[in-house]
Automatic annotation (TrEMBL):
GO terms for molecular function: endonuclease activity; hydrolase activity. This is Putative mRNA interferase YoeB. One of its GO terms (biological process) is RNA catabolic process. It comes from the Bacteria. The keyword Nuclease applies. It comes from Thiorhodococcus mannitoliphagus. It holds the Pfam family YoeB_toxin. Belongs to the YoeB family. The lineage of its organism: Bacteria, Pseudomonadati, Pseudomonadota, Gammaproteobacteria, Chromatiales. Keywords: Endonuclease, Hydrolase, Nuclease, Toxin-antitoxin system.
Length: 73
């Protein structure tokens, strides 16, 4: 089973996002839920394996926010 861990200031940023941008927060929640129940290489946000020194990590795009990506293991 997969788990979700917020490291460093990420929880503060997540909580701030909930207040500042409800649309982005909703999109982020949908991606996080899918990541927990699915294969990291499938689903919402166009999953992409990262390369070079980030090999083993994945990236997903937040819908409607092309400059924002979520990186994860």
């Amino acid at each position: 089973m997969r788990s979700l861990v917020f490291e460093g200031r990420t929880w503060e940023v997540y909580e701030d996002l909930r207040q500042r941008d409800k649309r982005m927060h909703k999109n982020l929640c949908a991606i996080l839920k899918e990541m927990l129940r699915a294969d990291p290489s499938a689903g919402l946000g166009k999953p992409e394996a990262l390369r070079h020194n980030l090999s083993g990590f994945w990236s997903r795009r937040l819908r409607g926010y092309p400059e924002q990506n979520l990186h994860y293991l």
